[in-house]
Structure prediction request, 367 residues.
Amino acid sequence: MQGPIHQAAPRDAALTRLRFFLIGWVILYHLDLPLRVSLGLPALAPLLQHGYLGVDGFFLLSGFALWLGYGARPPWGRAGIADFLRRRFAKIWPLHALALLALALLVGLAMAAGLTIREPERFGLREFVLQLFLLNAWETTARHAWNYPSWALSVEWAGYLAFPFVLAALIRLPRAALPAVPLLGFAGIAALGAEDPSLGLNYTLHLGLLRFALEFATGLAIGRLTTEGLLPRAALWPVLLALPLGLWLEWDALTVLGLAALIPLLRRPVPAAAPARPDLLLRLGEASFGVYLCWVFIEAGLVLVLRRVDPGLAGRAGLMIAGFLASLVAGWLAWRFVEVPANRWLLRRRAAGRAAAVSAPTASRVG
Prediction:
């Protein structure tokens, strides 16, 4: 028997705003790699040089939010699972594919213009196909190619494929055993972070899937603990101190522990109604996916500038601010004019096809 098809619960506004801060942290990290602002401003180094941990925040938040959306309305049965995956696909793939195709066009134009392409082997057909189908972070390649931030999207897609089955196991888990899931998750995160202290948790194509799985499962378990009243807010406040302490000590797993405490603290026990006029942080949080995927185009412009001038520390700081703002604008435009329309169009097509399938037998019986 097939289960019913459900829609996910609406997003929590505070958690959506958190997405802006997480993506902002990631973008600042990527900007600092070529600009090296942290070397001239060492006080900012712990924050800028560990901005890749914003991705870990997204992995935790992904599990937590999916529990909020589907914990009480799981996608059971073939129809429910298929509908869940279609919704995830409609959300992430159109913008991903368009960004990848736009990058291919940009690379082709640059080659035609005679511009020097750094490591041209990054732009091969095999890597393009792996990335297009979101297989590039499944231990299929060791090369950061094309729109390289999409590695995180690749592991998220793996998580979506596994989610209905992981959710079913988590729902069946006795309440007494539930705290073991985040405890084991954090033990795994700490072990992964200790594997190479110079790398911390900054695993992507290699072991990035494991990094994601540990944090995704932890986020799911924290979601259930929170909604069932098993995670007192008073106990989370001291844990939140792990966030700045982990940055200061350069201990990634400790920072992730602080991020894991922040997420349920931001969630209101009774979700507030969506504001009539969404504020700027809410809009930018909604656009975080677009910001992440469009970063590569901002990077391309930044590289061209740095090839021609060495602006000094003040100039590099100015370029960081400009690049950050440009990333937000590009991401918002991608969200507003690609991600949202494509998502709605695909879902409408599916709804229309389902309605036609239902009406066809009725029409034949009438005839």
